[in-house]
Amino acid sequence: MTRRGSTEFSIWQILLLAFVLMFSGATLAQEESDDEDDSADLDRIAVTGSRIKRTDIEGPAQVITIDREQISDRGYTTVFEALSDLTINNGFKFEGPESALFTPDVQTLNLRGFGVGNTLVLINGRRLTNYPAAYQSNATVFNFGAIPIASVERIEVLAQGASAIYGSDAVAGVINIILRSDIDETTVNVLWGTPTETDQTRGDLRVQIMNGQLFDRGSYTFTLEYQKREDILGKYYDQYDDQQEDFPFGEGVYDRSALILDQFKSAFGVFPRYRDPAELGDPNAICSQSGGGLVYAFRPGAGNFCGDPDSGAPAVNFQNEKEAWSAYFNGKVEIGNSGLELFTDLMYYTSNAQSNNQWLFISEDILDTTQPDTVDFGFFDWYLVQRLWNEEELGMDLAQKFDEDAYTAVVGMRGVFADYHDWELSVNYSDYELKTAQPWLKWRETIDTMLGTHLGVSFFGDDWWSGGTLPGESLAFGLGDPNNVYADPGDALRNVVGTQRYDNNSDDLYVQFTMSGDLFEMKSGPVSYALVAEFEDSSIEYVPDELLQQRAPTTDANGDPIAGSLTGSGWWRLTGFNGAGDRERWSLGGEVRIPVLDTLTLNLAGRYDDYDSTSTSFGGDFTPSASLEFRPLSNLLLRAGYTESFRAPDMALVFLRSGFFTTVFDDVSCYEQYVFTNGSDAGFDNADCETSTVFGQRVGAQEFGEEPLDAETGDSWWLGFSWDILDNVANQSLNLTVDYTNMSLEQRVLQQSTQGLLNDEYSCFIGDEPSTTPCDVVAKQVQRKVDPTTGISFIDTLLVTSINQFEEEAEFIDVHLTYSVNTEAGIFQFDGLYNNMLSHTRRLTPTSTEADLKNDPIAGGWDFRSSFTGSLSWAYRDFATTLTAIYRGGSTVFNCSTATNGCTGNVSGEDYYATENWWVDSYTTFNLTASYNWTDELLTRIRIQNLFDEKPPTDDTHDFFDQPWYNVFVYSGAGIGRYAALELEYTF
């Protein structure tokens, strides 16, 4: 597949025009018949995937619909829960409270395993602004946690690419959330739930009010939702309340909260590596003196230390504490008898949440030049101090806080032009504000209070600090003194700890005009069309506090320079992101539906999107699609289609600057050090260079004068059928749909290799031709400062960018089976969805080996190979119950980093990569709901999620520090176990 160009654009235009002209002559010759009047009376609806209204629910592409009743019947209490169990949501995600990563309070989906940003999310067919934080520091995403379920009527999910209809991001699918309207009653719903296996109640409360009224010429609908959730931590469960005893694959080890590691003993394999707290006195008293509940602990093969029994698994956060309010209003009114209708949609969401943080930590090397080393190496005493201070020791709340405010306002008008053409004009503005706060150590104060004089860089590339051990040096809490390592910090760290903050905002102005209707009649039916014109102006602004925007101080406690130490920001060893940018887009698209025969319909669509030149080098381009519907029988639909798709460069990758630490070979500095030491470069071999830790920043290429990112481009094609095997035959209905889908995406964005950039720099330095990056560009990305006394340089600024590089392809089979029967004993229904990932591959460069993401545990492998979600329901008179099964097929083992001894079980000792025995068991849970209508107004419902309290699968590649010892990126929240809720609803 190659980039779409102007030639391809012309071919698709000609095709579309040819089909219209081909049948226009025949149409003009047709005479109107009574059948035309009959067909005009049929109700038409618009289904996600096309703006053309039609009478058939099943169309040319697979659309999964989840309505409000299904959401309740399957036991879901949030929009995110309902969508998470979609079978096509089979990709892993770096998020969730357990992960403790960059965005632990956002809720996203990863359809088809193509990434969280490659699914377009619409509300009533319109775009909204994204979550205002950089997802894992490099992407913008939609937060499903901000959509109140009280306002949702149904959710439609298109399981194919659809950029020809909707534009950018519609690569892996489209999720269209349809909000409620035309309510003519008032309903109050109260739900209270809790996990059943915790040793104390962790209650969740949800209150909903839904109100509306229909008028002669209009209506209004109003919903209000309040939600309060308590945190759910590992310490509330028997299987997670002790890090040492509960580790399932051997003897666990407490978090090493106060540790002194002898670096020479560690390097030469001398036991014990840890310096025993007992050297200072009674070890139990030494460990307990800090007031943080630390205990004397042991790690096999390493030694004794002070550990924290309340850290690790007991502190794992399965659910964030959260309180949220949301309101929604829909109003519409018809003006006179003109058929003109004015409408508005207003949404507001606000929440306060917090994610549990276990401790603040520091881990630094101390070089005591007043003492000899411990293994008679003829050097100074060198040891690492690791200290994890918990909330009790610091006397402060360490939780990360999230305050969100989001609102959306839509105003518009709609009507009918010339009796047959529906039109709508809408203006949509959405704004999302996120404020975060978390305690952290300040850089300047950390050095001045605990670390002292900088003594150079160790053999391992880490900084050496005096820790207050130098003669005459006085630090308030020097970590070179073992007594301070184990002591109660008291007030010594009060001025060292601050609050790191973000104040982020994203907004979106979206103007849309649509028109649809029938162009003319043919023998086999009307030729229908739809047109869309859009303008969108999106902006992001991510503003961290002043310390995060500063460069790290370059002097130690004595004011002496720290040569070569480039370590981020004014917060200790902390990087972040900041930046702002704006993007404008104009779009024009069209669709045509041509009934070629009574049994054959052709659908053509095309869309032109034009972007400003500052946010992408994509410019403008045309995206086409074509699909066929063939109905050889009245109850059988055969369908096939092809569409191209694209994703405009993520605004976070274009406009944000984010920092990172990495280990590299700095050959230029290595060469200069060799020449300084030896007097010449004779005998120098860069293969002998050692690694060092550097700080880099990812920026948009336009920051150093290059073109911004291009779009990711791809295509989807599919083939399938929908068969109404029984259509109300003997009170039975049975439908089966089967679809094959192939998706591919080229020019996928990948962060530039830091080592590759430095390799190119070295090539330029010695006069060779670099392999990837021209020397003039390298000079902009790698900037150095030179020590005037030695001539040795160190990296002062290291900028890497994202590049359009790799390609990805996947293929799937999707099956949907529904059955219902109406008997004297009640109505029985079954609804089941099945997905099988046939293949999933990735190629990082045109010349690299293709990686098997489905089967190779090193290249990928965490995505589910297959999945099934099915529900069996029974309704009899005023009683109804539903049992839902959620099956997720095998994933691969958690830790599998290298082909040689990097995929070995801690208990079995088996090299799973060598034996190809890397699959983890499947995972099946059940939800059960039961409801009873006591009167026409009063309903009660019981919801039970994970009915049998099934634990997620695990494997013995997990180490003791990988708590909660299952893959949280695949089974997020599964540690909660069985969850029960009681619901009361009254309508009046």
TrEMBL record:
Keyword vocabulary terms for this entry: Cell outer membrane, Membrane, Receptor, Signal, TonB box
Domain TonB-dependent receptor plug: from-to ranges: 58-174
Superkingdom per UniProt: Bacteria
Localisation per UniProt entry: Cell outer membrane
Domain TonB-dependent receptor-like beta-barrel: 444-947
Family: Belongs to the TonB-dependent receptor family.
Protein name: TonB-dependent receptor
